[in-house]
Amino acid sequence: MSCSLLEFCRLQELKTVRDYLFQSQKTEPAEEKSQTGALPGLDRPENELSWETSEWESAWDSGDNKEEEVEEETTGQSGPWLQDCVVAMSPCSDLLVVAREQKAVFLSAKWRSNDSGREEMTLAVSWTGTLMTWKTTEDKEKCVSSSVCIPLASQKRSSTGRPDWTCVVVGFTSGYVRFYTEVPCQSKNGVLLKCRTYEIPRHPGVTEQHEELSILYPAALVTIDGFSLFQSLRACRNQVARAAAAGSDVIQPPPLAYKKWGLQDMDTIVDHSSVGIMTLCVFDQMKNASILGGFNASVKGSPPAMSQYVTVGGGPYTGFYYAVEGSSQPLLSHVALAVASKLTSALFNAASGWLGWNKNKNEEEAVQKQKPKVEPATPLGIRFGLPDSRRHGESICLSPCNTLAGVTDDFGRVSLLDLARGISIRMWKGYRDAQLGWLQVPEERGDREFSPSASLPRRHALFLVIYAPRRGILEVWAMQQGPRVGAFTVGKHCRLLYAGYRLMGVNSVTSQGWQLHTQQVCLLDPITGALRTVNIPFHLALSDKKSERAKDMHLLKRLTTILRSREVEPDILESEAKSVLLDIKHPAIKKQLLSPTQQDSFEGIEEELSRVGPTLQRYAQLTSRPSVSFAQDSPYSPLPAQAFLSQMECTEDGELRVIRGSETEWNRLGNFMFWGCLCGNSPLHKVCDTLQEAGISPQQLLSLLLSVWLQREKEMLQKPGETVRNLHTLLIALSNMKGAVEESWDTQSISPWWQQVRHTCIQSHNSAAALLAAFVAHRAAKASITSRADSKVKKPHSEWEAVSLELEQWVVFVRQLEDVLVLQTLLLVPPPQGSGGGAAAQCSIKTLMEGGTGGIADSVSKWVFRHNLSPERLKEILQKREDKEAEDKLEQKAGEEGKEQEEKKLLVAVCQRFPHSLSPDLLFAHCCWEYVVQWNKDPEESRYLSWAVEHLKLVSSPHIQLGISTMMWSTFIVKRLSAAAFLMEKVNYTQTHTFLPEGRCFYDVGMGDKAATYFLGCCVQLLQILMEADSAVEEVPAPELSVEEAWFGAEGPASIAELALEQRGVHYPLVQHHCLLASLLHSAMTFSLKVKPLSLFDSKGKNAFFRDLTTIQLMPSGDMDPGLISLRQEFLLRVLTAWVQAIDDSSGTSPPPLPSSGPKADWWPSMCLELGSLLQVNPDILRRHLVCELYNQGLDPRAEEVMLEVEDKDVLGSQLLVLTGQRLSYSLLHSQSQTQAAMELLARLPPTLCTWLKAMDPGELRCPLVPLPQTSRLVGRLIEILPENHAQYSLALHLLEAVEALTTED
User: Fold this and answer.
1) Strand, helix or coil at 417?
2) Does the keyword Cytoplasm apply (predicted)?
3) Which of 181, 360, 626, 922 is deepest in the core (most CB within 10 A)?
């Protein structure tokens, strides 16, 4: 399939058009010809408006009063008539405008039957006449210089992409532009017109270009926003229709938004292109800043958006202008506002001639005195240019992708510009008066559907069309450095029509589901009147020019297939070999054919099978579990003849095509055709020959083969060696069929045949079968590429290995499938009995690529949750990956089961295959998020939240820790914490005896009391992690996240770690404020204390709660209210008392160790001291209270440890003196077993001491019965800490004597 010129339309009455445009201007016709009246000509003298325009024209031309005539066409006295005309065609091919001087002919599309009875499209004259212009001093100023036909999209929902109507925009050499349809509707000044319409971005990240109409003046450029123009044209057309229906003559043309640039630093500007909005990369931004601003130039943080304009002409040859967005505000069209009444008169004077109305001429004369207001142009300096002093540019043609442009000059050159880099990248010479156009060809859908990125927009190939009228030839060149793919001999008087735009008024929403029927390039032949378009196949952008070599390679492949067939008769083999040898032209390929047969590529497949054998075996064990299915749904059931024939269809060309129905029917057909061959029960080559003779396309046969191979994975894994060998033979046989691998396939490009194999395996969840199919296809493709490469270098079996893009694709693809197989094997391991988490996830290359950069870690984190793997256990396994010695120790641990060891080995293997995607920080981060998500589903499972926090602690990067803590807080924690705080505040008002009756109050926030206690404890830990991470982020650089090389290009949601790194920093005092509240709530819930938690804070503190942690709030500062401090102190003292009561244990010299969590945890006293310092409570009061409470509880050893930290020993001594007196009073006066010695001792005591002991109340002691040695030790401590001048020092001495005497008596 090659380039072709296809005639799609023909012009009628060409002679009429020519005669009308070139008739003598002295003899004006009495009446203009009008065939349909669709576009009435405003040709009568009384309909033409006039005023003095010198001031207006000088303002538009930036003060240059000299008229500069810019012609779009090259004219000559003896040239053909069409070259002297301005020709414009709608991209929808339904309207053609031919204009010369002040006259114009409009031709509209019509359908008619030709001589054979077939319908064909023609362009017939629909209107002729003189275009309305304003009278100037010279006739030449009235001439038409440019014209474009802009189809306007329909706004109706039922529209399928056809235009609603077409607006003809005509520019005159006087500087004016008229917009035509049924009646004229708007007016502006101009010389050369170009239009840009909306194009759907083909790739993510490409900036959408807005619609625009640009008008070039000799020294100014005006750009009109397409949306504003579209709405104005629709509004004017609707106003005219309503005014005509109502008989009114008042309309108000709406204003237009436009920008006017004064292009500087260029001598002459002949043509231009508005490229659109672009953004420089950071490097280019820094380069430009340093060039323009010098060494000390400052660079903005983000590159600004700029509109790029490219001009051609002289001095320099090509100029590049960049207008920064926002540097010039859009102007309203005061011109249109100033002449609204004038346009009204012109409009309805025209309408009066059309509809039979008349207008008072006195009103028109009054209007003519008005003059429009013109805004000055914004100066725009040239950024850079391409200098060429001897040559001057004549025209520029912008490519559809806005990255390239073709430029013609007066030396017969055609230059190709790279607009992003601002350089000329290619040049053609010998093309005088050349006319340019572009063709953008999409990829064929048949090739696209086998691509792994089939869901993305199709690829497009770009071609440049050059028409050389001097030589009468039309050429098509592949971009950017491609060959000439087509050349046609056409007439020397043709016109190449290239619009460069489509429908106006289309956007990303309204274009959904539209089929835009537009022609890109048309060639108009004025001799025959034929309109022809260029048809270029997509593959010409990829094909090799040397078709003879491609044909010889096909013959070589055909003979190789015959030689490998063991069922061919010797006579047939000899005749076939002779005919092939005679047909082959290249000696190198003949030499390759006569050399010994190439070694079978199956040897490499066996090596790969042995390498992945253990993983395949484990995968087969995990997938061999029994399953239930219905017989009628099974693809393995026999295929009836009726069902077989119902899936076959014979085309008009006599070929047999398989109709693809349901997936089950397709699998049954594939099973019928190929399963016998794969099992070795059917002759492979006979089956392939039969299928080839039947005429079924190799692509459909390949699809059937792969479907049965992937579907019957379990049976295939029972005998992998035999089935893989048969698959290899079948695949080679199918590849050698005609139409399988293209003869013109270049090994440096992607083959659609092998791409089909990859596309099928990419989507399959049967990882083992897909990997084995990839092994086979990789070896087959490699053998084919090596054969082609050997023929090119004329060395069969060369020692050099062929390198191609196809082989690189296979290497990456096989690596991906091996990774997927190991990961799928891990995910198939069944979890322990009774664990949650749902069924095992199915993965494939497609699901992993669509899962984003965190898809792999997310799958493994779900597996960790299903298997109930604790954070510490996961940490050990991950350390085992890095430490081989630790691996050996873990394997030799006593009591570990073989199954658990198998799971650990699989997890380590997966982590080794994904060193970046499953780095410890990423895996811990995803596990943390998985557990907190599961906890949010069932808040009663406090262990989930606790393990989520433990996983978060194991993340080593403070940046990731900070981000995940912030996301956990805002997503899951803050609402429940605020509900708990307000509920506890509320319950304290109503409850007088108990805090939470029957443990049910916290069900209002979704959990019970026990779960709420764990929740509050986790909140404290989370906020502490958040504060620590916030303190450490400044010291440690942010981690650089990456993925494995084979998994680049993953598209989908960002990983948790990436989202964490994007989080904003937190306000440390606000986090600390919330941590303080969470600690108070946790203390109250743990020890069942009655408190109003929010009442412990002032108004500023209350208002700061539950705000966004990234914001700066007004925090409490300065000295707090004494009453508030008293309430805080009372609560902390109650917490310490409750903790001492909770740890009550048997007295002894060495107290037992305390647990790390719960009410008996050893960190409660230190936490209370920290809270005291934050709540402005004196910590020494808390320490003294803790010492007294410990002695009160009889925990003397613990009390002695805390006593060392007390600062005010005098107050503590007085408190402990009372407690000692209570103990001695209980022993002497209140004990049940009073001895004679005790009574005698009491009698010997000093009266003052005796009276003091009798006043003591031992009932305040929670543990009054304390061994006397402990009390004696306590009195000794009292003597040490009390100064001798203390008022109670003598009392302490008496107590010491009494205790020693009592101890001696015992």
Assistant:
1) strand
2) yes
3) 922
CA-CA distances (angstroms) from residue 138 to 27, 142, 298?
19, 8, 53
Q: What is the DSSP letter of 30?
A: S
Rounded CA separation 282/1279 (Å):
77
Separation CA 717–CA 767 (nearest Å): 11
Q: Which residue from 376, 384, 395 is spatially nearest to 219, judged by alpha carbons?
A: 376
Residue 225's contacts (CB-CB under 8 Å, 6 or more residues apart) are 210, 211, 212, 256, 257, 258, 330
Distance CA 1280, CA 1300 (A): 16
CA 793 to chain centre: 44
Backbone angles phi, psi at 496, to 5 degrees: -90, 115
- As a whole number of angstroms, the longest Cα–Cα distance in the chain is 156
Region 695-724: mean pLDDT is 86
Distance in angstroms (rounded) separating the CA atoms of residues 1051 and 1048? 9
Which has the minimum average pLDDT: 104-113, 645-654, 700-709, 870-879? 645-654
* Token pair recorded at residue 61: 């031309």
* Residue 656 half-sphere exposure toward CB, CA atoms < 13 A: 14
pLDDT computed for residue 889 by the predictor: 52
> Distance between CA 194 and CA 516 in Å, rounded?
20
Instruction: Identify the three-state secondary structure at position 168.
Output: strand
Name which of 146, 165, 160, 153 is nearest 95 in CA terms. 165
Cα gap 497→96, rounded to integer Å: 10
Residue 504 carries which DSSP code? B
Chain-centre distance of CA 75, in angstroms?
52
At which residue do the structure tokens 């990067």 appear?
957
> What pLDDT does residue 499 have?
86
Whose tokens are 């006319």? That residue is 435
C-alpha distances out from residue 1009 to 994, 1003, 1020, Å: 13, 8, 17
pLDDT of residue 1242: 73
Other CB atoms within 10 A of residue 328 CB: 16
For residues 436 and 497, the answer to whether their CB atoms sit within 8 Å is no
67-81, 151-165, 633-647, 859-873: which has the highest mean pLDDT?
A: 859-873
- Residue 1061 · residue 934 · CB < 8 Å: no
Query: Could you give the count of Cα atoms lying within 13 Å of 709 in the half-sphere of its Cβ?
Result: 31
Q: pLDDT class for 839, splitting at 50, 70, 90?
A: low
**Tens digit of each residue's pLDDT (9 = 90 or more) over 1260-1279:** 888 888 888 888 888 888 88
Distance from C-alpha of 149 to C-alpha of 86, rounded to nearest angstrom: 12
- For residue 998, the model assigns a pLDDT of 40
β-bridge pairing 187-189 and 656-658: unpaired
Taking the C-alpha atoms of residue 926 and residue 919, their distance in angstroms, rounded to an integer, is 11
Residues 6+ apart with CB under 8 A from 1249: 1291, 1294, 1295, 1298
Better-predicted residue by pLDDT, 352 or 222: 222
Tokens of 73: 């066409």
Residue with tokens 């109409």: 213
CA distance 702 to 691: 11
User: In the numeric block, which tokens belong to residue 531?
Assistant: 């309109």
DSSP characters for 108-165?
Answer: EEEEEE-TTS-EEEEEEEEEEEEPP--B-SSGGGGSEEEEEEEEEEP--TT--S-EEE
pLDDT of residue 246: 77
Residue 397 to residue 414: CA distance in whole angstroms: 11
Ramachandran assignment for 276, one of left (phi > 0), alpha (psi -120 to 50 degrees), beta (any other) = left
Decide if 744 contacts 550 (C-beta within 8 A): yes
In angstroms, rounded to a whole number, what is the distance separating the alpha carbons of residues 226 and 153?
A: 12
Cα angle 726, 727, 731; round to 5: 120
Q: Which residues pair with 95 in a beta bridge?
A: 108
Structural contact between residues 1099 and 1113, judged by C-beta atoms closer than 8 angstroms: no
- Picking from 378, 383, 379, 382, the residue whose alpha carbon sits closest to that of residue 266 is 382
